[in-house]
Amino acid sequence: MHAFNYHRPSNVNDAAAQAVKGEAKVLAGGQSLVQAMKLRLASPSDLIDLGMIKDLAGIKADAKAVTIGAMTRHADVAGSAEVQKAIPALAALAGTIGDRQVRNMGTLGGSLANNDPAADYPAAVLGLNATVTTTKGTHAADKFFKGLYETALKPGEIITSVSFPIPKRAAYVKFKNQASRFAIVGVFVADTGAGVRVAVTGAAPCVLRLAEFEKALAAKFAPESVANLKVKPDGLNSDLHASAEYRAHLITVMAKRAVAAALK
């Protein structure tokens, strides 16, 4: 690990000002960044720890949406009675992230800003058409995720909260890596009442939607509607855990299971 300057601001404005200095990085839980620093894959000049900014954590729910602060831990989302009541699929998703240490240290904002191709939260954000609020404005889910570890965030821009619209029904199912619990393929299905959204994580360099699956489920929200749909392996991830062809197959399998779970 290379030497760096450590900052622990008490408010978002100070954090944003410090985040644009040199090669600064924002620390929002550290489950990915600290490991990258240990391996010298990341060598920030400054580390901006958001842990003392209380305004960035918390959960609020109303009749239309659940708004979650960026520094809210995965375990808090999973255990929230408000989230469990309004969007049980989101609480269940948070409860499957990593192990207990990861769930008690990792944060919603950190996960989204990092945009790991196998992370779970991006599927929920895209599947529920959430709005990401930052120190510089808002980002619609469809325009937030840009590519491998790439988002719409600009230098110094910090996620402050995410607003998840409450769907009519939804579910998330993943085929997980048994060691890391990352999604080899994860599918989030949401029936909003006005349309259906299907978001896939783990399969490609970045979370993506499946228009053909959405169209089929809008006509009939049932597992059989997607049972015979095929996904081309072109452009999908291929590694020691699964080939692109296997991931393509898993997308259909996980989509069927997610729809079935949403109907329960």
Q: Radius of gyration over alpha carbons?
A: 18 Å
Number of helices: 11
In N-to-C order, the SSE pattern is: EHEHEEEHHHHHHEEHEEEEEEEHH
Please state the second-level CATH architecture of the largest domain: 2-Layer Sandwich
CATH class of the largest domain: Alpha Beta
Walk me through the structure:
The protein has 2 domains: 5-165, Uridine Diphospho-n-acetylenolpyruvylglucosamine Reductase, domain 3, CATH 3.30.465.10; 169-262, CO dehydrogenase flavoprotein, C-terminal domain (Enolase-like, domain 1). The protein has helices spanning 12-19, 33-38, 74-79, 81-86, 88-94, 100-105, 108-114, 121-127, 141-144, 211-219, 244-262, and strands spanning 5-7, 25-27, 46-49, 59-61, 65-69, 131-134, 137-140, 145-147, 150-151, 159-165, 169-176, 183-191, 196-201, 208-209. It has 11 helices and 14 strands. It has a 5-stranded antiparallel β-sheet with strand order 4-5-10-6-7. A 4-stranded antiparallel β-sheet has the order 11-12-13-14, with helices on both faces. It is of the alpha+beta class.
Q: What would you say about this model in short?
A:
The chain is α+β, with helices and mostly antiparallel strands and 264 residues long.
